[in-house]
Design a protein that fits this description.
The structure is a homodimer. Chain A is α+β, with helices and mostly antiparallel strands and about 230 residues long. Chain A contains nine helices and four strands; from the N terminus they run βαβββαααααααα. Chain A is about 55% helix and about 10% strand. In chain A, α1 links the parallel β1 and β2. In chain A, α1 packs parallel to α2, α1 crosses α8 and α3 runs antiparallel to α6.
Chain lengths: ~230, ~230
């Protein structure tokens, strides 16, 4: 079996923040597929696979290149059907899309606006000018303005995970039940992203999310421990 | 096969509003199990099955009585494993719990507060005193106060379905993919509930939810058409 190459967004101190790359690292580990996470700057992306994709993750598997986290997850289940499946059924896949959509709506914008300056400050030197320019244009405010007004937004982002908290109250070990699944990787990816760049905590230390997140971090040889939670938790 | 009896909350004009009963009517139809929906007043519930359950739905199947919509759904998949499954996998079941939790968080309270007086006004005469007293105590406001201040809450409740709208943008016919599943029944149940009692519309006529909701209403011989959408849509 060839080792799959995963282009994985890299920032300062070799941190790997991308929530979409996290999903795919978990997906590859879930399927037991050996992979190499290739450190990738934002500004490297146009030179991968002839500029076919505008974002990471991108994987190369033998001669095949696949971009976009959903396309990659589908590819992995199709190409490696004998390995543990990411989606046990078409319904599970669609409900994972609901989980993603639900968190985009409930937490996405407040997370992004709260932590945009932190993301910038952790970006590689050569990525920063592009990042600042494109994001300030998108939000119509400077990164510094967004950072100065973030206290309430962080509270809103924290509340944005209430759906996860309420689900976990049911007592299951994972969002996908007794065993972890792609829905867990989606949600954990958002939190590992913030953990890798935050300069203000998102979660309180008694947050019931943390027991679940610790279980996800421990999976697959402690894959998620590469993003310590110190900066995530007050 | 014996006909299953489903105790189904009844209000004025024989409408059947309960979102939890709707799920189970859909669940029974999904499994192709013949059932009789027994009209039930709120104040009838203590006299069913020796008062074992405080809410409907309750089903009687032969000698067995089961209450609570999740317990009933699990019972149906266990007792009738050869019929189409409600949950294709343990993961699908848990993700349906996430769908429910997510809508409780995003829309539950604003829906309930917006439509509490309408629910009261549609209740059977003999249920109204109990309903008013218990709900006014819960919210610390009169039903009339809640109704007079509901414009913004209805907007919030409408936005509370944005996760569903964003998921459906992916192009699937149902939240569960090409085929309807329990997640569809959960979400449709909330909307059929409001449709049966609303005196102010929840949705705009161009809402992309409506095409999906129409598909769900058409399922299983048009089961959901028993709750017309006129009052739901502006």
């Amino acid at each position: 079996m060839t080792t799959i190459r995963l282009y994985d967004l890299q920032v300062r101190d070799d941190r790997r923040p991308s929530p979409f790359c996290w999903r795919i690292k978990y997906a590859l580990a879930h399927k037991g597929l050996p992979f190499e996470a290739v450190p990738t700057a934002l500004t490297d992306i146009p030179s991968i696979a002839g500029g076919a994709h505008k974002t990471v993750p991108i994987i190369e598997d033998g001669g095949k290149t696949v971009g976009d986290s959903w396309a990659i997850a589908d590819y992995l289940d199709e190409a490696y059907p004998d390995r543990p499946r990411l989606f046990g059924s078409a319904a599970e896949r669609e409900l994972c899309r609901f989980v993603e959509a639900s968190l985009f709506v409930s937490a996405g914008k407040s997370l992004l606006m709260s932590y945009l300056k932190d993301i910038h400050d952790h970006a590689l030197e050569r990525d920063r000018a592009y990042f600042r320019q494109s994001r300030e244009k998108l939000f119509g405010r400077t990164l510094e303005e967004l950072a100065s007004e973030r206290a309430e937004r962080i509270e809103a982002a924290r509340a944005g995970f209430d759906s996860v908290r309420l689900t976990l109250k049911g007592g299951a070990r994972f969002l996908s039940g007794a065993h972890p699944g792609y829905a867990d990787y989606i949600v954990a990816g958002f939190l590992l992203w913030i953990a890798s760049i935050a300069t203000a905590p998102l979660l309180m230390s008694d947050d019931p999310l943390l027991a679940w997140l610790g279980r996800v971090q421990d999976l697959h040889g402690g894959l998620g421990r590469k993003s310590p939670l110190n900066a995530l938790v007050a």
